[in-house]
Each structure stands twice: as structure tokens, then as C-alpha cells.
Amino acid sequence: MPEGKPLNREPALQELISSFITPVTEGYDRNHSVLPELNGDTHRVRIDGAVKRSLELSVSDLQNDFEQHDVVCALQCAGNRRNTMRVKIKEVQGINWFDAAVMNCKWTGPRLRDVLDRAGTSLDDNEYEVSHVAFACNAAACEDDTWYGASIPLARALREDADILLALKMNDQPLTKAHGYPVRVVTPGIAGARAVKWLDHITVQTRESENFYQQHDYKVLPPEATDAESASKFWSIVPPVQEMPVNSTIATPVEGSTVQRDKAGCVTVAGYALPRGDDGPVVKVEVSADAGHHWIEAELLRGEGEGKWSWKLWKCQLPISTGTSKAIYSRATDAAGNTQPERSQWNLRGVCYNGYGEVTDVKFK
Length: 365
Ligand SMILES: Nc1nc2c(c(=O)[nH]1)N[C@H]1C(S)=C(S)[C@@H](COP(=O)(O)O)O[C@H]1N2
Ligand SMILES: [Mo]
Description:
Structural class: alpha+beta
Cofactor: Mo-molybdopterin
CATH superfamily of the largest domain: Oxidoreductase, molybdopterin-binding domain
Domain Moybdenum cofactor oxidoreductase dimerisation: 241-357
Number of helices: 8
Number of strands: 22
Distance between the termini: 52 Å
Radius of gyration: 21 Å
Domain Oxidoreductase molybdopterin-binding: 33-213
Keywords: Metal-binding, Molybdenum, Oxidoreductase
Helix content: 10-25%
Protein name: Sulfite oxidase
Shape: globular
CATH topology of the largest domain: Sulfite Oxidase, Chain A, domain 2
Bound molecules: ligand MTE, molybdenum atom
CATH class of the largest domain: Alpha Beta
């Protein structure tokens, strides 16, 4: 690792849900290396592996030789809500994330599938099924590997409606250095770990990426894996996290606060909700004032450019009695009927936590 610590931060949750589109400077940062400084004029992305024609594309090729597409999608770290798993269930390994390691932005660039079409894959049917598209950034050494890489199934990458982009813009502006300038992968519905920033190499291959962060991180290990040693035998057999689970979380009221009820004896409860992988959008969010005995439906707010991959901001006026409340819960359901469980399975790395959104210890007056 070169000098300097990787930039890792998340905004305050109340700030995060104040806009449907997350401003560039507000979105969380997750890095396993320092931020590389790349030159957009000379940068190239190489496409090779099991392809008919290897390509080497400049940023202007990516911009001018391919149709440009927009997608408004949530991009979420697989470790989002890790703190809840740690606090409500059991200690986990990994840097602490609260509920704001997610952002909902508009991304613009060519579709990965159009770029792969130009290269043309050279695989037979059997190979096709097991093949992955691997992404790499060789510009900076990471904490646990000499480069950063990830891969997703080729079949997903080639789907026109998967909306996977080689993004050149975020919220209509060129990418910033922190978010991957000059080009990053955007993988709607798939964990942020696969959305490789500072992309310089795409490989079509009959195996997953060999990078540390695909093989030895970002996996939902079984509960028997309780430390590094007992985890070791599972890394090679547990699949990497790809699609993220249905989720929601409560931003308001804040844990430990005192809140004045309105004349009708209600308080505003608000948060965000996310669909499972490909199963968006979220169609329902329910809120409970009494730890899950009774539920009322929240209002789902509309957002500009929203679609199946974007988050839903929601709010409701929740009737509640005075005093210190029981837990307030939120529970999202997506278009395919996936609903959050009360608690999700503990795993050593604390990834993919999607138990009910939960706020305790709020005093109502
Ligand atoms: N090259 C590179 N790409 C990367 C990472 C990284 O460390 N290096 N982190 C990944 C992880 S784990 C996440 S959650 C997202 C975070 O994207 P952001 O920093 O734009 O929020 O980028 C992904 N892409
Ligand atoms: Mo991540």
C-alpha cells in the first residue's frame, strides 16, 4: 500500500434521505486503496480474454463510439448496516458501517453489453454458463491484494435490461476522483464491491475474478465460521455476494432522541427502502410502533428518473403513545414479494444485513 489511509466515510442518515438523488459529495466512500490519480486523456480500458477481438478503448471511444445510457440506481456496500448486525446479534469483523453506505445516483455511460458485443465472446454453451466478466483496476495496490478486482456472471452482463454501465458520469458530471474517474462499472442491484472504480481491464473468463475481494471478502459465511481460522475452509466454497437483499432503514426519529407528537398524537417516521437485486422496485413499506404487533403502510415518495433499480424514500405519520417507545420497525417488500425478515443471519464479515429497520429508545412527548 502506498502511503495514506483509504478514504472510507458515510454521511449522516438524515442528510442522506433529504434528497432522492444523492449529491456527489454526499455519497459514501469505500476504498481498499488510496485514490489513484488518473489521466482521462490517456486512460485506456483493455477488453480481452474469451473474446473474438481484443479492444483497447479510450474514454472518448467509450463516450463517442457507443450509445450513452442513463440509469438511476442504488449503489450499496455489502457491509451497509454492519453495525446493526454487530449490536443486535453478535460482533462481526469489518470496518463499521451504519445505515448510510448506500447512495442513489444517476449514472451515464455505455452499456457493458454493447462493449462486450463489439469484442464478441468466443465461448461454447457450456462455458458460457459458468463464465464471468472480470473487472480490474491496476492503478493502486490495495490493503489485501496488489490490485482491485471483481467479477459478475457473463449472462447478467449481457442482459440488455440489466443496465450495467461503464459509467463516465455521475449526476450529469464527469466522475470525481473518489468515485472512479475516469470510468467505473455500475452494477444495478449488485453489491457495490463489484462496481470497480478506475476501471482499466475487462476480461471475459470461465471463472470468477481471482482478486482477494472476490475470493476472501464480501461473502455471507455460514454461522459456523466464527473466526479467521474456522472461516478459512469456507472461502473457496461459499459464493461471492452478488445481488443485495431487500432492505429498509429508519432515519427519523433518531435513536435516543425526544420527539414532540403532533396534535393527532402522531410522529413522522422516514427512511429509505431497497429492493432485492433484480426484483425492484420496492412496492410497500410498513411501519410498526409496537415492535411488530401492528403495522401501517408508509407513503412511498416519487423521485425523478426512478425505476426498478432505484431506492424509495418513504415516510409516514405514525400514531404513538407518550413515553419511551417500544422498538419502531420498518419493513420493505419489493415487486417480486421479497420482504425483510425481523433479523437476518449473522455472518462473520457482517455483510448483507437486512433485518427490519429499527429504532429504539425514543421518548415521545
Ligand atoms: N478500484 C476499486 N474499486 C472499488 C473499490 C475499491 O476499493 N477499489 N471499492 C468497492 C466497494 S467495496 C464499494 S462498496 C464501492 C464504493 O463506491 P464509492 O466509493 O463510489 O461509494 O466501490 C467498489 N469499487
Ligand atoms: Mo463495499
